[in-house]
Each structure stands twice: as structure tokens, then as C-alpha cells.
Amino acid sequence: MTSVARGAVRRLAAFAVASEPGNERVALARVAEAVAGTGLADQQLDRLKTAVAEATMNAIEHGNRNQADLPVDIEVTQQGTDIVVTITDQGGLHAAGTAEQPDLARKLAGEQSPRGWGLFLIRNMVDAMDVTTEGTRHTVRLTMATTTPAEEGATRENHL
């Protein structure tokens, strides 16, 4: 396997899904396929798939308001040893971008909506999450660090 030079950007996939409930499953499957063989551990892959599904659901529901004719654009790149997934909707700044921190006790007491776990969950599934808005394009950028086989060997040797 050829390792990616630090800082080099390699596009692994770019696709769009219609803004229809359930298409988050299509997105997570396509992202999982794109990152196969990149050095993500199984647990990292599961966390990335969860984050992609949540971010895509937010884009479909909050950004594009379930309008099937508005696509959710997804791009997967490998930047050095990082996997970066960008998920872009056409809704501009929406409620999901400004959600308050969920508090389980307040939710159980009815003081907070039972919804609103998406961004909290996403942030805790990946190594970094950035949210940007340019005009009507709202983008969530998810970053997950990988370890290439060569780095794993070097790390093991340093600890022996």
C-alpha cells in the first residue's frame, strides 16, 4: 500500500444524494466504501459512519427541508493521514448550526426539546468538526485521523 504524503490531498469520492429521509444510509455506505483501505480502525469507521449519517440527516431535514430536488453534496478526501468528509446542503444557516448543548436532565424534565442531539453526537464521533456557511451553501466538515500501516509499525517499535 502506498502511503499518502503529509498534506497531499486525494479525492476518494464525490457524490450527491436527494434530500429524502433515509438517504443518510446511502451516504454512510458510500463513504464507508470510499475509505476502505485507508487505515481507519473498525471503531473509527463506525464512528465516522455515525457522524456522516447524522450530518446528512441534518442537511436533508434542516438544510434542504426534505426537498428531494435539492441535493446534499458529499465529498470524501484523504489529506495526509486524515480522512475528511464534507457534507453540503443548500439551506444556508439553519437551526442545526446554532443548536444549544443538549442536557439530559433538562430534556427529561421537559425544559429542552427531546431533539437536538445531532451536532453533539457528531462532535463526539470525529476528531474535528467545522461548520461553515457561504451564501445558501451550509457545509459540515468532518475529520478523522488515520494511522497508516507504516506509522503503526513505527509506533510499535518506539514502544518496544
What is the top-level CATH class?
Alpha Beta
Q: Summarize the amount of helix as a percent range.
A: 25-40%
- C-alpha geometry: globular
Helical segment count: 5
Instruction: Enumerate the strands of the largest sheet in spatial order, edge to edge or round the barrel.
Output: 1-2-3-5-4
Q: What is the CATH superfamily label?
A: Histidine kinase-like ATPase, C-terminal domain
Give the tally of β-strands.
5
The CATH level-2 architecture is identified as 2-Layer Sandwich
Give an overview of the whole structure.
The chain is an alpha+beta fold and about 160 residues long. It has one domain (about 10-160): 2-Layer Sandwich (Heat Shock Protein 90). It has 5 helices and 5 strands. It has helices spanning about 25-35, 40-65, 105-110, 120-125, 150-160; strands at about 10-20, 70-80, 80-90, 130-135, 135-145. Strand 2 and strand 3 form a beta hairpin. Helix 1 (about 25-35) runs antiparallel to helix 2 and helix 2 (about 40-65) packs antiparallel against helix 4 (about 120-125). The relative contact order is 0.19.
In short:
Helices cover 37% and strands 27% of the residues. The chain is α+β, with helices and mostly antiparallel strands.
